[in-house]
């Protein structure tokens, strides 16, 4: 994806000879064997085929996962559609999943076969020398760069893929997850271990979109009670921003979308004002400012449209309004506004995965769900079965009334 492009040039990870020998010995001793299974392989633009693939055993600090549930996300579709100039083919897409550990590689601690795991495309190495993971500065971000270069290149940290096709040819990984496959291999630092009782279909929601929206409200803009909020785009991401804002006690929540079918769910989750830009003949930022006195405390773009990002910034409150870019724009797009908007006190920021650190901060979300403190079921609007179901899920996602289509293998 375009947002990950710059990451791909930084690959330098090398596995020491001694570690490579350990992997080899592990394999011949039979600790883990290659697995043949079904996967939906992206062969080229809009060419998704169910094939038998071979998934190699996990290498050092790697984990092989049995994928049980996969939720489709627009980033998968965007890459499949060929719009991402950096998209790699053939590859195994998918990055929102509920999985179970099948086997672990050399040096993996804290994970064992049978553990339930949400693979996270933002890893968390947690090492003392990682300024992005370790306090004090590591508290500010979830953007651990430990494996970003190789992840962006569609390979594991040692520079190779664990997937091969029936002819023995390499298939690339995607976002460090590749969950359109019955089995996948990920880095151990990408594995968020969740409770033994976690439902794996719900786990898939927390691998990306829904966590992102909740975290944008809770971590990135840190909404406080009584504030006003405007959310542009009411897919799963925007709706979860609304849900997170309501849970923080926001007093007024504007829900903005061109598709009025989205308003019912937005209201159920806490929206107080539903606004369709098509109903007005002036810019939507003027409409929202007109419905308030000075604008809105916290605003979010959840569309990926750069004009909407501008509108979200420009309806933020004079003096202190904060606007968060959550949507991912198409490759090459740029944002603009008059600098006066910032001079007069608005702040423009963005979020990746809602600022959540995968391994330490995602598992508590599932605990909250299981304890009834966090409602999540409403995001699953469509269900399909088998790896083939990913093809049906792609169609569902295009329909306009799908929040998340969950495919169970
Ligand atoms: P979605 O397509 O389901 O929802 C987008 C919504 O925006 C739709 O309801 C659509 O009708 C609405 N919309 C489109 N154009 C609009 C406009 N001009 N004005 C108002 N509404 C408009 O997508 P989603 O799954 O909810 O994801 C939303 C965005 O978040 C995507 O760009 C996705 O790539 C991005 N995303 C970002 C992160 C991150 O970490 N930053 C993570 C996940 C997803
Ligand atoms: O570490 O520089 C990096 C890469 C961070 C990737 C953040 C991606 C955020 C957008 C994800 C889109 C939806 C899957
Ligand atoms: Zn780190
Ligand atoms: Zn996603």
UniProtKB/TrEMBL annotation:
Matching entries from SUPFAM superfamilies are given as:
GroES-like, NAD(P)-binding Rossmann-fold domains
InterPro entries the record matches: ADH-like_C, ADH-like_N, ADH_3, GroES-like_sf, NAD(P)-bd_dom_sf
Alphabetical UniProt keywords: Metal-binding, NAD, Zinc
Q: Where is the Alcohol dehydrogenase-like N-terminal domain?
A: 59-194
Q: Which domain of life is it from?
A: Eukaryota
Cofactors that this protein relies on: Zn(2+)
Ranges for the Alcohol dehydrogenase-like C-terminal domain? 236-367
User: Know the name of this protein?
Assistant: S-(hydroxymethyl)glutathione dehydrogenase
Q: Which organism is it from?
A: Durusdinium trenchii
